[in-house]
Amino acid sequence: MPRVLSFLLGASLFAAFCGAAWAQPLTVGMGLNKPPYVMDGGQAGLEVEIARQAFQAVGLSMQAQQFPPSRALMVYRAGQLDVLLTVDEGIGGDGFFSEVYISNQNVAITLAANRFPIKQIEDLAGYSVAAFQNASFLLGERFKRVAGGHTRYTEYPQQITQNNLLFAGRVDVVVGDKRILHHLLRDLDPKLDRSKPLTIHPIFPPNPRKAVFKDAAVRDQFDAGLKIIQSNGVYDAILKKYAHL
């Protein structure tokens, strides 16, 4: 029997064996709307669909619950959630962590016509920079040092502002999550030319994300479901769907 077929059959039998114990939808905590990762009140989005399809592949369903980031972790630790998405093992605690199900990456983005030679975080010191709110606290010590001594560094609570400033030529560099900034191009000020080509500078490391589970058996089912959708093309189809929204 081919290896993939054998794995899918084994996962199906595992789901049939365990499904009866989890007939009710799992309560799955996640952040507030952050397109393209979480959208429509937790009913859609790249991250939401990956989780939902992984659960469905092993016969489980999920009920989304949205919280601000700090409250989500508190609610999970109080035992009120079966699963919490978008975490890493640095949160500690005694939960059961899944395999990595998505990897995010913050980047620097410039207009390609400018040909800025940005190869590392320290290179940003020579350019005007627009970053997302609290970036100087979230992107590591090297970035914090650059931002702290930078006279042309500004953070914005609305990330569409970064894109508008970039395309208007009022800032040299924007810093933020690659997928979020790309998604927000469709909301660009209509007076601006969104056809201008961009250069992506991957000066920050990828940020692999996991889910944390209250129950080890459910974590194991999720990991099995994740392998199924990565093998049968569903995972790649979700990535492509949200890359083109």
UniProtKB/TrEMBL annotation:
This is Transporter substrate-binding domain-containing protein. Residues 1-23 form the signal peptide. Transmembrane segments: none annotated. Residues 25-245 form the Solute-binding protein family 3/N-terminal domain. It comes from the Bacteria. Keywords: Signal. It comes from Rhodoferax potami.
